[in-house]
Amino acid sequence: MFDSCAELVAEFLDIESQLAQPGVHSNPEAARKLARRHAHLRPIVAAYERWQQLGSDAAAAMELASEDSSFRADAEAAMREREDVEQRLRTLLVPRDPLDGNDVIMEIKAGEGGQESALFAGDLMRMYVRYAERRGWGVQLIDREDSDLGGIKSATLSVKARGAGDPDDAPYARLKFEGGVHRVQRVPVTESQGRIHTSAAGVIVLPEAEEVDVHIAPEDVRVDVYRSSGPGGQSVNTTDSAVRITHLPTGIVVTCQNEKSQLQNRESAMRILRARLLAIAEEEAAAATAQSRRSQVRTVDRSERIRTYNFPENRISDHRVGFKAHNLDSFLDGDMDACIQACLDADTQSRLASAADGS
What we know:
The chain has 359 residues and is α+β, with helices and mostly antiparallel strands. It is built from eight helices and eleven strands. It folds into two domains: 4-93, Methane Monooxygenase Hydroxylase, Chain G, domain 1 (Up-down Bundle); 104-350, Alpha-Beta Plaits (2-Layer Sandwich), CATH 3.30.70.1660. The strands form two sheets. The chain has an eight-stranded mixed β-sheet, with helices on both faces. A three-stranded antiparallel β-sheet has the order 6-7-8, covered by helices on one side. The longest helix is centred in the first third of the chain and has 38 residues, at 28-65. The radius of gyration is 25 Å and the shape is globular.
């Protein structure tokens, strides 16, 4: 049982040895990858070593129980704990998304519903910023297009963990199930009759790619610059600081105009492009191996929803896992962990079931 664990322990110790060498840290990207893998293996190694230790303790207690029956209780306690640790170890060993430890590029777009949808998209953006702050992550606004009345037509955020921690607590692991259409039911500020309207906003969550993950050849991109529009300081409409990058092989177009510097906008656009190309590569790899991969809704249609935010009833409903709560105000203030955990638990059960079917 757990034959693969010995290899994982050896890999863990080898990575620890590499991380202790000063030369490794001269390459920050390589060091970061090693640190992420180390963080992923740490709980597996700890659980495996505890499982082994409990087995030894139980065997020793049973041997002593042949002479002193009081040791039988110790043996039984060790075996009960070993069963719990064994279940956790089985869960840890189930193949998981290798991108769980990544940071995130998140795109939020207004959909059907006009100004009300744009206002709701702004609410979602603030919700994710507050959630990231609660978890101690860093958030950067990469690009934003405002609408009237204080809403947003679209926004792109970068969410980064501070250091290499447990992959289960990394931005992509916890936010990847936020991708899809979010529906809101409330009385819009523009509604004079007090009628409840339904509108929608879309969220796309992409694992952020490092340059070593996705290589983009210079000849594969066309870069256009133009005048920024909207908020952005005195440079707006006076310099060609906005950037549009077209990836010629795929036709993907990314625009950024949030920064005053053309160079900064270009760097931001390339980050988004790498994330989109990584997502495409992952989807193609999953299809090639005939493995099902959770697909995110790419359209912003009210009928294709993952979650509903009902203001009159102060209710949150996640339609994929049946989660419901009546704490809409705190949820929109970033108190999202209960719903996110319900999605993670459902995914874990699905992976365990798939692993059992394949065994």
